[in-house]
UniProtKB/TrEMBL annotation:
Its main location: cytoplasm. It comes from the Bacteria. It comes from Comamonas piscis. This is MarR family transcriptional regulator. One of its GO terms (cellular component) is cytoplasm. It is found in: Cytoplasm. GO terms for molecular function: DNA binding; DNA-binding transcription factor activity. The keyword NADP does not apply. GO terms for biological process: response to stress. The keyword Transcription applies. Residues 16-150 form the HTH marR-type domain. Keywords: Cytoplasm, DNA-binding, Transcription, Transcription regulation.
Length: 156
């Protein structure tokens, strides 16, 4: 830490000064907010995220889904199996390369979209932010995620 005085070094270690804790605790609060919104649909938060991606474009590869959601195959595969058992999607080996698996929504999975349509408005209301403020905050967090995910260079 350049030019850190003992006082600033001490303050830098306070919990409320930690970006990681602000993001972590906000994530917990967000997941808690979604729970009662998703329960009537029979969905968990990770299942909802999978459906959001599939509602944007059906038939993608499992690997692409994992990249989009920042989930590894060890987490994603059991999640997709549970969703297939629930009847919301099916997985199918790619005809050109059997090592790849595509994910398709079932009719029940497509119908969940209409049932979930009110969720974003509920989240907006609970956030007590205006739409533009929430969109700007989302964009800032996405930019931070991109920077954090970028490989470290020798100059860092």
């Amino acid at each position: 830490m350049p030019n850190a005085t003992p006082a600033t070094a001490h303050n830098a270690l306070l919990l409320d000064q930690q970006l990681c804790f602000a993001l972590y605790s906000s994530s917990l609060a967000m997941t808690k907010l979604y729970k009662p919104l998703l329960e009537p649909l029979g969905l968990t938060y990770p299942q909802y995220l999978v459906l959001l991606v599939l509602w944007e474009g059906d038939g993608g590869m499992v690997s692409e889904l994992g990249e989009r959601l920042y989930l590894d195959s060890g987490t994603l595969t059991p999640l997709l199996k549970r969703m297939q058992t629930a009847g919301w999607l099916h997985r199918q080996r790619d005809s050109e390369d059997e090592r790849r698996v595509r994910v398709y929504l079932t009719e029940a999975g497509r119908q969940l979209r209409a049932q979930a349509a009110a969720i974003p408005a509920c989240v907006l209301e609970h956030s007590q932010c205006g739409l533009q403020e929430l969109q700007a905050l989302t964009q800032q967090i996405q930019q931070l995620r991109s920077r954090l995910a970028a490989p470290l260079t020798a100059a860092s």
